[in-house]
Amino acid sequence: MTDENDDGHSLSADEVHDRIRRGERVNLLDVRNREEFEAWHITGDGVETVQVPYAEFVAAKARDEVAEFVADLDLREPVVAVCPRGEASATVADILRETGIDARNLAEGMQGWARVYVSRELSTDSEGFEGATVLQYDRPATGCLSYLVVSGDEAVVVDPLRAFADRYVADAAERGADLRWAVDTHVHADHLSGVRALAAETDAEAVLPAGATERGLTFDATLLGDGDEIRVGDAALTALHAPGHTTELTALRLGDLLFSGDALFADSFGRPDLERGDEGARDLAGTLYETLTERLLALPDDTLVAPGHRTPDADPNPDEGDCYAARVGEIRDRLRIPGERDAFVERVLDSFPPRPANYEDIVAANLGRKSLDDGDAFEIELGPNNCAVEAEGD
Prior knowledge:
Blueprint: E1 10-11, H1 13-21, E2 26-30, H2 34-39, E3 47-51, H3 54-62, H4 66-73, E4 79-82, H5 88-98, E5 103-106, H6 109-114, E6 118-121, E7 132-139, E8 144-151, E9 154-158, H7 165-174, E10 178-183, H8 195-201, E11 205-209, E12 222-224, E13 229-232, E14 235-241, E15 250-254, E16 257-261, H9 277-296, E17 304-307, E18 326-327, H10 328-335, H11 341-349, H12 359-366, H13 374-380
Parallel strand pairs: 1-5, 2-3, 2-4, 4-5, 9-10, 10-11, 11-12, 16-17
Antiparallel strand pairs: 6-7, 7-8, 8-9, 13-14, 14-15, 15-16, 17-18
Helix pairs in contact: 3-5, 9-11
């Protein structure tokens, strides 16, 4: 698939993603600077990337030494050039083709990559799913996962992204349902929430955990406490308070399915330092230990965990509709949580990646304390989410 406005030398971000998802080899030439590349880049099985700044290509062309310069790069063909918006990389792709290399440009660059949004139906063979359909949405650029649950003529979306609010409405309508609830499991720090946008555009009610008020929530929302239920059609989602990543985080259970938000991932768990900083991280890490050992990982082994994020190198689970999900028993074995609370806390405090870009502004916007137009909202959340503690061994 090529860009309709291009001469056939560009690939769309969706096409690149499809190739990665199919397990094909994808050769990328990232022409951003090293700092930009290391902070955020395209990953996946079969992806091989060479990083060379755009300025070096310009300099080689000015010296009339492009052929020699390109030969030293030892690029695999076909190669796809990548930059922030698809402009500099288009120039580089042209330069490469002039030397006889099969090169294309990633249309719209990393901004185009950030607009890729795919969905798949989660396997729902467990008890409590009668008549319900569950879609998992994946934003490959950040690893954010959202969910649409449809039962009868009603639907609920869990952890929706503002940038894709219309998508949930359309997908519910395609399945003969109206969106009744838009739920955040917690106050997100890595992306703009879609709950208010959906409440404004539809009859859906915005829902947040009750503890969001203590964090400074400024807009009207239905507040969800531990044990409360959200009914959608014939299905019921039950709230399970799971603090640690944040104080208010509340997971949702649908039969044997757990929407865990950022409390628990398939191979890690949410970092505890974003709400209260370094000073409060130790106490929240201890809370996280109790949540994991006494609540989430204490659930039956066959409980299916549908997390709020996936790590960049995570593989979809073919046993669960090719979605990013795993059973509690598998996750418990994988995480190897220390038996002692203090040992867990120290491990967590030593395992923080860089904080998400602009996270303080994003939190303020998600609480209703800061306003952002659609353009600023899209720009502010570009980059990696970095909401997970680094898995052991990373």
